[in-house]
Amino acid sequence: MAIHGEITPPPDKSISHRSFILGALAQGTTTVRNALESEDIGSTRRALSALGIDIRKDGKIYLVEGARMKEPLQVIDAGNSGTTARLMSGVFAGIDGIVTMTGDSSLVQRPMARVIKPLELMGARFLARGGAYLPMAVRGGKLRGIFHPMEVASAQVKSALLLAGLAAEGTTTVNEPSQSRDHTERMLRFFGANLSVNAKSVGIPGGQRLQARDVVVPGDPSSAAFPVIWAAATAGSEIVVRDVCLNPTRTGFLAVLERMGAHIAVDGIRENAGEPVGDLVVRGTELSGTTIAGDEIPTLIDEIPILVVAAALASGTTVITDASELRVKETDRIAAMAQGLGCLGAEVEELEDGLIVKGPARLTAGMIRTHSDHRVAMSFAILARARGIDVKLDDTRCVGVSYPGFFSDMDTFR
Ligand code: S3P
User: What are the counts of helices (DSSP H) followed by strands (DSSP E) for the chain?
Assistant: First the structure.
């Protein structure tokens, strides 16, 4: 079904987490405007409150009072949020005391060794279930800077180490195999930190104090991707998506859509708190299959489920490889997307590190197991609407993790 309309996506999830965390670490009162109101951001705010940080809301603006963090008296529950668990691990490492953390049934299965190992080398101590999973306890304290070559590109790991590095003695340097989202680097600079950034390496000298700032969070490109792909892949559609963060480490999906033949124009580029922001004008057409692999993967890692939907709507074959990280997201997204598409009758092959989708898929009605993964749920909801087929999701509530207004927003299109 073709769509028309205008939409502002919800505020960026990654930038919202970082605004609260950096505000808590800074000297003075940070204001956060347009913060995402979602379950994951609630997890970060509650974790900071448990550490004694005062976060108040004045109308629509959050006020974060930077202060020395205290050992919490309760277990911190990161819920479904990997970003809370990983970034806050870097913060806990610098606190003089013991912090315990757990998460929901998905988060307790996600790998934490990637933050535990380097943070232990910096001087923190961890006691984790099976050595690598939540629940875990962290004994923080005096840290020293390290050089850490990461095995996988991960903004969460990089950010945990930069946040710990801020409190460490000496410089902490992180190298990544491909560049992941750089919101932490941009926001650290915006808060007055000094750091050295090369293509795939970031260094932060320890012992720096951040200064409170006023942050306005731009729209989330990962949430924008759902209506963008619906419109781009449906001839006759025309929509405008306003105030989208266009940080190049997040816009890989736009480059892929362009290769698939999509008509997307970027309008009114401006800068906001160190991040480029703009509006997208999307016109629908028939898309063709493509290959998505290599260094491009980290720049669209969260958009792969909805790109799989674009592949099913496009004509020709789409091959996605080098994406094994998808197997350790909120659910195994390779398996979940392959099973779901297969169940609707699409031709799809699951690879160890990706998927092959043959489009345009002939689809029938069906029931989808979302595994309570917000992006899997939203992807199949878009496929159903784009094709006008009856698709039942076993969980729709999970969209609240990143996009609580998803269904009502999608209903505004005509
Ligand atoms: C995020 C980084 C990515 C992404 C996640 C948010 C962040 O995870 O998938 O949704 O805000 O830093 P990884 O760092 O595990 O790739």
Answer: 12, 24
Q: How big is the CA angle at 359 (ends 406 and 335), to the nearest 5 degrees?
A: 60
Q: What is the pLDDT of residue 199?
A: 79
Nearest to 273 by CA among 183, 193, 155: 183
- How far apart are the C-alpha atoms of 398 and 279, rounded to whole Å? 27
Which tokens go with 113? 């060794």
Residue 318's pLDDT is 98
* Ligand 1 geometric centre to CA of 268 (Å): 27
Residue closest by Cα to atom 11 of ligand 1: 14
Q: Which amino acid, residue 193?
A: A
Query: Among 302, 332, 373, 409, which one carries the catalytic annotation?
Result: 302
How many Cβ atoms are within 10 Å of 65's Cβ, its own excluded?
Answer: 16
pTM here is 0.98
Pocket residues: Cβ below 6 A from ligand 1: 14, 83, 154-156, 159, 180-181, 301-302, 325
Residue 273: predicted pLDDT: 86
Token representation of residue 39: 């379950």
**What does the DSSP assignment read for 219-262?**
BPHHHHHHHHHHHHTSTT-EEEEEEEE--TTT-HHHHHHHHTT-
The identity of residue 375, as a single letter, is: R
Place of tokens 């790991």: 157
How far apart, in whole angstroms, are the C-alpha atoms of residue 221 and residue 246?
7
**328: CB partners within 8 A, 6+ apart:** 110, 111
Write down the pLDDT at residue 341. Answer: 98
Sheet with strand 29-33: strands edge to edge: 54-58, 61-65, 29-33, 214-216
Active site residue 302: yes
State which of 21, 43, 178, 180 you would mutate to test the pocket of ligand 1, scoring each by most atoms of that ligand within 8 A of its C-beta.
180
Separation of CA 25 and ligand 1 centre (Å): 21
Which residue has the least CA distance to atom 15 on ligand 1?
A: 154
Gap between the terminal Cα atoms of the chain? 10
User: Which residue numbers in the chain have pLDDT < 50?
Assistant: none
